[in-house]
UniProtKB/TrEMBL annotation:
Keywords: Cytoplasm, Schiff base, Thiamine biosynthesis, Transferase. InterPro entries: Aldolase_TIM, Thiazole_synthase_ThiG, ThiG. Its EC number is 2.8.1.10. The lineage of its organism: Bacteria, Pseudomonadati, Pseudomonadota, Betaproteobacteria, Rhodocyclales. It comes from the Bacteria. It is found in: Cytoplasm. Homotetramer. Forms heterodimers with either ThiH or ThiS. Belongs to the ThiG family. This is Thiazole synthase.
Amino acid sequence: MNDSLVIAGKSYRSRLLVGTGKYKDFNETREAIDASGAEIVTVAIRRTNIGQNAGEPNLLDVLPPERFTILPNTAGCYTADDAVRTLRLARELLDGHALVKLEVLGDPVSLFPNMPETLKAAETLVKDGFQVMVYCADDPIQAKMLEEIGCVAVMPLASLIGSGMGILNPWNLRLIIDQARVPVLVDAGVGTASDAAIAMELGCDGVLMNTAIAHARQPVLMASAMKKAVEAGREAFLAGRMPRKHYSADPSSPTSGLIGT
């Protein structure tokens, strides 16, 4: 079955996107990402060396851009100006690479998105030629505004970054999915494989995660579980679940032609 994820005109086999932080070392990072099957990996430019710090270990030696699509992100930015400046640096380091993940945070405790600053940064980046995938609140109105600005994907949170609380408001996600004409990917809050499967069953185009894999007792094994969960959730969505029947049973075996009847 040809069921590719298409972002900014490029097709990907995997609908699981993964982060590169919080692992014990670069070797574990690569092993987990290989187990996940992910093709897009996101990198926090403010926290990870991809060439800006000469003489330090470079993540791109472990995750070469010819093998993976590197998705620089603005984790740690709290203003539109900081986010725009960070991604312009990333574009220079990655030889003009345009696909980026925008996130502008509201505070260091909840890490909830600052949506006015996010909208401001998105508008600037799109005008500057970036292909913007954007972390946002699970607000259908603001998600639509980001799409209309020209973002190539909207990425509403399932719950707070790193919380592992799963999808707290599936109804808002469905509202965003139903109106969107660009890919919708859950970003933040996934804790285990069932959370990823639920996101895909709701109709999300993909899932991005980091902490759920990196902070598992066995990150490589969890990465493999997440790969399967995303695939299973996508297949279930395409298959179409049976309708729910409240207060009504439906025998799975035939009720006619039985022995003795």
